[in-house]
Amino acid sequence: MASAFQSLSLRTTPERFYIEACDDGSVDVLAIDRVSAEMTLTVRRDIPASAETRPICGLMGTIRLVAGMYLVVITKKKKVGDLLGHAVWKALDFDIISYKKTVLHLTDNQMQDNKTFLSMISNVLHTDGFYFATDYDLTHTLQRLANTSPEFQEMSLLERADQRFVWNGHLLREFTAQPELHMFVYPVVHGFITMNSSCINGKVFEWSVISRRSCFRAGVRYYVRGIDSEGHAANYVETEQILQYNGAQASFVQTRGSIPFYWSQRPNLRYKPKPQISKTVNHLDGFQRHFDSQIILYGKQVILNLINQKGSEKPLELAFDKMVTSLGNSMIRYLAFDFHKECSQMRWHRLQILLDMVADMQDEFGYFLVDADGKVLSNQEGTFRSNCMDCLDRTNVIQSLLARRSLQSQLQRMGVLHMGQQLEEQTDFEKMYKNAWADNADACAKQYAGTGALKTDFTRTNKKSKWFVLPKNLVRVIRTFKKNFAEKLRWPFPLQDSTDLFLGNYVVDEADWTTPLRDPKDWKFLTLPIIMVVAFSMCIICLLMAGDTWTETLAYVLFWGIASAVTGGLILFNGRDFVDAPTLIQKEKLD
């Protein structure tokens, strides 16, 4: 495999950027013209002595904003660990550097828009969870890497990467077109990675969890649900658990993703908007595209649908079941498990019901295993595709339990666990395992919903804490506020507009710029809230400052009370008009 350069420095002149490889023996230099944006290879002796020099940890790529092109670089990184002898890094800080030396050519509105776009890109970059390796392909599972051709092995990291998980793919579009530049860049994945060393029975082994978040149909909770016309599901994450012991390697892969047909759940000021299943599209076509892709990539599919089987979620469960039946594919099995009903009143032990239901299927799927000599002993023949409404809290709990069951089998087969020993009895490892999966839940939740996960008390301790109710309810309040009012860059998580700009779903055209950022509100947006506040205040004042007679006081209170109630009802009725919605993507993508 053609590795990327591990160490770089950025040298800047008024005319060019020079990206210099600091690896031993390398003389290659990437030159970027700051006027034409042309990228070429040159050598060190061509760098002017006057160039300002600064070390950088890597290149994310380039992006075009209103002011022109910008270079996005990684300025700080932290080593996560070693995977199969290859260093894996977490990107911690970034810099966005303008090609242009001034923005004086812009109008005031353009400068303001450019500043907003820079804030959007920065918001995404500083969402925790960007990882990379310069000499290892993080976008593929161990099993896929073991079943590739010699030609694939010779490709650069950029050429061979699984595009579903390359979050800087849009930023690297200029590099992709020039293979000679691939050594300067690498794919960056978004999600969660943890690597841990542990010891059981005196035997030391390495254990890792890698969650790869898809950049297709990416976005934030409520604004991105269901699938698109290509069959890409919202909040799709591939999670791989890797075990290394004495040169042998084992891997167990699971996926999560939004219910894969066309539905929406647009914020409308209510705590839990009612899901809406589209009535104007052919659901089965996109549904089939999704699962055709899943079967090609992972083999047989077992769907674990964890949503409620009553109330507003029930129509989604019925439609999901009906579509699997209509598809009639023997490679797909569907299991509905009402997580909240089964586990209500802290009855977490009832999760064993689901584990028992799928035990034979999990044994049939198996896991990927290769011995110390590189011989493949077994392949994973299928995956569990889990979902709840958000594919966050309930989903992560189930995935952690299935992963533990697989790990138990792997450790016994490798001889780490003695026959009859249970992982749950290994206190130190159990604590590490639970915390790692809870951290995985928090990371995925923050990236999609802007807050940590809700059920990490169980994942960390295997029991529900009564003291956790208050912070959990606080998380729910924050999620509710963010989904309704935090879309316009007020919070440091990847909001829908920011994500679409970063991933190239929305592209800035500086030559023909008309701002989409100013979303004029109609009269209702300000008038109704003002009337409601005034009416409610007058109602309180009338109660505190009673009139001469009780009938007069009652009349005033009723008048202002009815006025505040009516305006409040009108605000709720027109809830979507008051929600802080995205502005950079077409309305039909949100409905």
Quick summary:
This protein is α+β, with helices and mostly antiparallel strands. Helices cover 36% and strands 23% of the residues.
Folded structure, characterized:
Helix 10 (393-414) packs antiparallel against helix 11 (427-449). Strands 6, 7, 8, 9, 10, 11, 12, 13, 16, 17, 18, 19 and 20 form a 13-stranded mixed β-sheet that branches. Strands 4-3-2-1-5 form a 5-stranded antiparallel β-sheet, with no helix packed on it. A two-stranded antiparallel ribbon has the order 14-15. It has helices at 108-125, 142-146, 150-154, 157-160, 173-176, 283-298, 314-327, 339-342, 351-365, 393-414, 427-449, 456-461, 469-485, 496-503, 524-544, 550-573, 575-578; strands at residues 8-12, 16-21, 28-33, 39-43, 52-56, 58-65, 68-83, 86-98, 130-132, 189-200, 203-213, 237-245, 248-256, 263-264, 276-277, 300-305, 332-336, 368-370, 376-378, 382-387. The longest helix has 24 residues, at 550-573. It has 3 domains: 1-187, no CATH class; 190-423, no CATH class; 524-589. The chain is α+β, with helices and mostly antiparallel strands and 591 residues long. Strand 3 (28-33) and strand 4 (39-43) form a beta hairpin. The chain is globular and about 95 Å long.
